[in-house]
Write a structure and sequence with these properties.
This protein is of the alpha+beta class. It contains 16 helices and 23 strands.
């Protein structure tokens, strides 16, 4: 299996209710959330009391054109951008996923990972359910239609109460309701906005900004927010004693112009760099990131240390997700095609590189080697988070320890492996304090760093029993 050098998070969701251009608004909302999923995209819309969809593999502009948007006309819509995690990246697993039941339709778009999915799927299949996909997202809709005899709102509460793990849902009904659902721990961000009298749901506030919607609030952990022609109605299932916001949203996943969990991402990443400079100062000629992941922490490190910030590696912004693979003799091409050093700036210098994470280490090793060959005198690497030593079961695609180089190598061993003069990771305490959130120890999921999982999970998760969302 080929593991990504950077972690990938699945996925991004968007929804809009009561807007004459709901599909177009959703299209642009997904555009803003493209960083959260680049393998498939889809939109579901209500038309004539039925849900119609268009989904495809690829980026948002690859999947949709004007003809598709015209066909999907309606006033209520949800959308989804997706990364596959450890299962298949194929069209039938693209979202939103739709079911039809007793002349009604329901669609769901999901960000996260249901950790008791295998147990629930087994129970549902024994009761007669037939599954169309390998997605854990489908389980929610099976539970919903099974419980509709309780009434729609009670069915929602009962179904959500059965789920464990990380899930932020956007749900669409053929009656035109748009529903936002957040798990009791609040792992993944989901916010509410208002656009000219219409309501919008989005994984991140950057999507609200693009469509010029006003931010209203974030959904609470355990909240089911129903948006209908009658307005807003909020249902609640019991929230966890402490929230488990994903700390890696701040470090890497979310766009820097977004505000999540009440804090701006740009400023938080900059604060990580400030803490890093305080914890691990080093004399050098310049501070630089490997664009774009370490850029904002590098700014903070530079400001705190007084060492000049430079862009020592230039990113090729025109490299797609895939390109013709080189021959073995050009085996480093896949790394070099994305970033190229500014030779005149770096030769003979002592440099500090700021990164947000080291997952497999192979790309970092290749880049450090290239800098050495260029004539860089000394290379120090500073990472704006602790070492990733434990797999994530809540929606990030490193699901086994074998994918995480820090789980098998000490910092000293990693320093030698990567060819560095020094290596330092930001401490967990420094990371938490730099979020600026009161009592951060009891607000974040830190399982990938400390191995303390806030929600128990099926053992099968490490065996890839279901496609993780």
């Amino acid at each position: 299996m080929i593991y990504p050098e950077k972690p990938r998070e699945a996925c991004g969701v968007f929804g809009v209710h009561g807007h004459t251009e709901a599909t177009t608004v959703t299209y642009f909302g997904l555009y803003a959330l493209q960083h959260r999923g680049q393998e498939s995209a889809g939109i579901a819309v209500v038309r004539d009391n039925s849900i119609i969809t268009h989904k495809g593999m690829g980026l948002v502009p690859d999947v949709f054109d004007m003809a598709h948007l015209k066909e999907l006309k309606g006033q209520s819509a949800i959308g989804h951008v997706r990364y596959s995690t450890t299962g298949s990246s194929i069209l039938f697993n693209a979202q939103p996923f739709v079911v039809h039941h007793k002349q009604k339709s329901y669609a769901v778009a999901h960000n996260g990972n249901i950790v008791n999915a295998e147990e629930l799927k087994r129970e549902l299949e024994e009761a007669g359910s037939i599954f169309q996909t390998t997605m854990d997202s489908e389980i929610f809709l099976h539970l919903l239609v099974k419980n509709l005899n309780l009434g729609f709102e009670h069915a929602l509460v009962e179904s959500v109460s059965k789920l464990k793990g990380a899930f932020s849902f956007a749900v669409l009904t053929s009656r035109g309701e748009v529903i936002g659902i957040k798990d009791p721990n609040g792992f993944r961000p989901l916010c509410l906005g208002k656009l000219n009298g219409s309501y919008v749901l989005a994984s991140e506030t950057c999507a609200l900004d693009l469509v010029q919607a006003e931010f209203v609030r974030e959904l609470d952990p355990g909240e089911i927010l129903i948006i209908s022609d009658e307005g807003l109605r909020s249902l609640k299932i019991p929230a966890a004693a402490n929230p488990s916001f994903c700390i890696f949203e701040f470090i890497y996943f979310a766009r820097p112009d977004s505000t999540i969990f009440g804090k701006n991402v740009y400023q938080t990443r900059k604060a990580h760099g400030i803490s890093l400079a305080k914890e691990s100062p080093v004399d050098a000629d310049l501070v630089m990131p490997f664009p774009d992941s370490g850029t904002y922490a590098a700014i903070g490190y530079s400001e705190e240390s007084g060492i000049p910030f430079e862009i020592g590696m230039i990113r090729n912004h025109y490299v797609g997700r895939t390109f013709i693979q080189p021959t073995q003799s050009m085996r480093d091409f896949s790394v070099r095609v994305k970033l190229n050093p500014v030779k005149e700036l770096l030769k003979g210098k002592e440099i500090i590189i700021i990164e947000d994470s080291i997952i497999r280490g192979t790309t970092a090793k290749t880049r450090v080697k290239a800098l050495r060959e260029l004539g860089v005198k000394r290379v120090h690497l500073r990472v704006s988070g602790p070492p990733h030593r434990y797999p994530c079961h809540y929606g990030i695609d490193f699901s086994t320890k074998g994918e995480l180089i820090a789980s098998s190598k000490s910092v000293e061993e990693l320093t030698r492996f990567l060819g560095l003069d020094s290596l330092y990771y930001l401490s967990l305490d420094g990371l938490l304090k730099s979020t600026g959130i009161k009592d951060p120890e009891h607000h974040f999921c830190k399982a990938c760093f400390d191995g303390h999982y806030p929600v128990e999970f099926d053992e099968c998760l490490s065996k890839d029993c279901l496609e993780r969302r």
